[in-house]
Specification:
The chain is mainly alpha-helical. It has helices at 17-20, 46-64, 69-85, 90-106, 108-123, 130-143, 146-158, 164-180, 183-200, 205-215, 226-235, 239-245, 247-267, 294-301, 305-320, 325-343, 349-384, 386-396, 401-415, 421-439, 443-459, 465-474, 477-480, 487-510, 513-526. The longest helix is centred in the C-terminal third of the chain and has 36 residues, at 349-384. It is globular, with a radius of gyration of 23 Å. The chain starts with 16 loop residues before the first helix and ends in a 5-residue tail after the last helix.
Length: 531
Amino acid sequence: MNANTDLTGAPLPPEDANTANIIGTTTQKPTTALFPSGSRRERPGTLSLTIGFGLIVVCLAGLFTSPSAAIGGAWCIGMMLVLLFLSVPVAIALSVPSIIGVYAVSGIPATMNILATAPFSAVSDWSMSVLPMFIFMGMLLTQSGLSGKVYRVADHWFSWLPGGIGIGTTFAGAGLSAVTGSTIGMTYALGRAGIPEMLKAGYDRRMAVGTIMVSGMTGNLIPPSILMVVYAGIASVPVGPALMAGAVPGILLAVCFAAFIFAIGVIAPNLVGRGPDAQNPTNNRDTTRPTTTWRDRFTSLTGVWGFAVILVVLFGGMFSGIFTPTEAGAAAALCSLLLCLWEKRGEQPWRKVADSAMDTVAATSAIFFIMIGATMLTSLLAITGLAPILTGLITDLGLSRIGFLLVLIVLYIVMGMFFDTLSMMLLTIPILLPTLETMGVSPLWFGVFVVLLGEFAMVTPPVGIIPYIVHSIAKNPEVNLGATVTLRDIFTSLLWFLPVAVVFLILMITVPGMTEWLPDLISRTSGGMAG
């Protein structure tokens, strides 16, 4: 993964002028890397590479001298972890140790079999065809400049409330990350636009950066969610219900963050630029925001009419039973194509479409390679007998369902020190799936829980990558407007916001029905959703 890639290792969508500068002034496209300098995502140094290669040699030696297949499988898992720590692409880190492990345990015939069958079986399921459709839709909507318009609409409609700009930013972030499929890309774009707007309104710098960091946590739950599609492929659950399962929790979490910001605006108005104690953190510069009228609010809606049409096609088609999830994705991608051609008419629209198509091919290929690696890992666990052993170990701990899930929360937070959401999912889901039935955990609910845990881990200080990205953005004078935003401010702001996410995780554990209500409703309404 490098500075120009998203969580899948695929190129990020190009930053549109409206995304880079949503409020309409003219600024040049930033040339700074997406990942901040000094972050844990940089390539390992010579010492790290030397130690890493030494550990790989140890793992190989342990594998080929193991007294049992299960111990050999454990050495392969260790080799995967080392490769991931060395920033080796996720697909290679998953597949290479799996292939070597199958060869060491079962010989050449089994190895040839896995090489012949895994690439096809991992991605040939019809339900996976929805993935490039959703990615293409997100790329087209980004190219059309919709991201900027969504932020303006949210800003206009919520700015009158206490903490209204922060509330609007929260809902805009949820919508943008859901459409683009990239929490990191959304954080970068929204941070450049939202932080200066909140500082102009007199927000405390910690409120401004904290709002940006948590605004994208819900996006990979709200359909169309690429991560939920990937989970459906790994866990062999129907894609349609998996997509719908994340909608209600994602929307509720966004509402919880918005309610928290509103409460801060009422209890401590100086933190959101209201009241006599509000401070101007921008060195007394002219930071007057224009007054928003009701005419402005309704006028702003005209800019996102295309987005409303796409939502009607996507959700209305699945609700009514007219479309399967795959067909709904294709119809929504077609609407996005027409929208991009209309919005960019006179600005070489077909070039925008071609760029979106190329980025879609790159992103889809990256995800499919990763899924092939995950399939090979699953085969390794089955051949070595490691999966039932791990299931037995977890069962023997005597944990209840709640205890098991609380342990997972701690595990994912620790893994967030090293991996992104997709890497954590692919590494843990094949191992944990056999345990779910024993623990009484629904695979559909578990997908939503795992995606949210991965997003939570990416934000949790001091190890999550999102705080360092926002800190890098806030160093830009055009973003901070003269205010100094330190890394301590970043971490302090998260200590304000993250308890909301913790409470919501506990709520999900105690009320699991929130994930299955909408899929059940659609199933009853449409007569069932095709996988």
